[in-house]
Design goal:
Layout: E1 2-7, H1 12-26, E2 35-40, H2 55-63, H3 67-82, H4 99-110, H5 114-126, H6 135-144, H7 149-156, H8 162-175, E3 182-185, E4 189-192, H9 197-209, E5 217-218, E6 227-228, E7 231-232
Parallel strand pairs: 1-2, 4-5
Antiparallel strand pairs: 1-3, 3-4, 6-7
Helix pairs in contact: 1-9, 2-3, 4-5, 5-6, 6-7
């Protein structure tokens, strides 16, 4: 069974959804027969590679609210993250461009290390508050999972793997994915948003039992917490 996951490395619900999916997989006796593939999706392709604003300040400006209100929003998301064992440090995060991070993930895929790279990028951004648009940071993260840092730096100076990123994003459009995370199981079942773990279990069990089906069906509710158009709105 194959699960494709469209996500962005600065999307909090993508990291939460990733962890909930992993928790669901742990409940399945056939988890070793399930392949998870990460697909590229940029929430804001026009985001800067460097920004002096914090995420809280960015949200306040974007939605025309006070920094106190914005902080309450991020605190709510941080609590959701904590419930799945993640630590989000919004006070130090900055809105960043993720195109090169996605190119690095595509490079790691060629080396058979995309899953490890995705986890490393999420953790670096949300827990360590690293600037994952910086090429030196990306090279360091790549080295941490056994890739060659200098080779990564050289790759990032070129347009390598840009086509793979754009291809993933175009495919997301064809699937009708307007927000992330977006999960597609066996090219038949779609799950939108960071659904509860039990929803993932139900969908995966259904897909496992109907692998011969050829039609794609959206069987999870389309109301899971998600990010779109460059922003994430927490839902209680």
């Amino acid at each position: 069974m194959k699960i494709e996951v469209w996500s962005d490395f600065v999307c909090p619900f993508c990291y939460i959804g990733k962890r909930r999916l992993e928790q669901a997989l742990e409940q399945l006796s056939y988890k070793d027969q399930i392949e998870v593939i990460f697909r590229s999706f940029e929430l804001d392709p026009n985001a800067k590679t460097q920004d002096d604003m914090t995420i809280v300040e960015h949200l306040a400006e974007k939605y025309g609210i006070s920094t106190e209100e914005a902080k309450r929003m991020t605190d709510n998301v941080a609590k959701q993250a904590e419930s799945v064992g993640l630590v989000f440090r919004f006070e130090k995060m900055k809105p960043l461009n993720t195109f090169d991070a996605h190119r690095l993930a595509q490079y790691a895929k060629k080396q058979g290390k995309m899953s490890e790279m995705a986890e490393k990028l999420f953790y670096a951004y949300f827990t360590d508050s690293r600037e994952i648009s910086d090429h030196h940071v990306l090279a360091e993260l790549a080295e941490a999972i056994g890739l060659k840092g200098e080779e990564v730096k050289q790759m990032l100076k070129t347009e390598q793997h840009a086509e793979e990123v754009r291809s993933d994003e175009a495919e997301a459009q064809r699937f009708g994915a307007r927000a992330v995370p977006f999960f597609v199981v066996n090219r038949q079942y779609a799950i939108s948003g960071a659904q509860p773990t039990e929803i993932f279990v139900q969908v995966l069990q259904k897909a496992w039992g109907e692998q011969q089906s050829s039609s794609r069906k959206e069987i999870a509710p389309n109301d899971g917490a998600a990010c779109e158009n460059g922003s994430c709105s927490p839902r209680s």
